[in-house]
From TrEMBL:
Signal peptide: none annotated. This is Putative ribonuclease H. Residues 3-134 form the RNase H type-1 domain. GO terms for molecular function: nucleic acid binding; RNA-DNA hybrid ribonuclease activity. Transmembrane segments: none annotated.
Amino acid sequence: MSTKDTTFVYCDGSSRGNPGPAAIGVSFQNNEGMEFHFLSEKIGNATNNVAEWNALSRGMEEAIRQSIKKIKFRLDSELVVKQMKGEYKVKNKDLMVFKTKCDQLKNSFESFDIQYIPREQNARADQLANFAQDSKP
């Protein structure tokens, strides 16, 4: 993949019980929508919002690990997107930890974008989160 290409990263977190058993799904896709890497991980007990933030954070860390420089994150969590953009304040201290970390990670990219998408456009990340939820320990 050339450095001119933008990577699209679809992130989703799920919690069964809110709080309850939680997992994340992250799909890395090229400009043509072809997935070239993914994460599907249990994260222990968490709220849905913590799971969503965790998915973004892990996606950012993995992108940095892979030396991806131009990135566009896509999430179906309007709360996380608006908090990340500074449109909503982060009042919860647990979420503030993620916001601070993601703000720092953001500086590692030449180009960073984050956008809210409808849930149906985030099906692969949702599938990955559910796969982790349903997998045996």
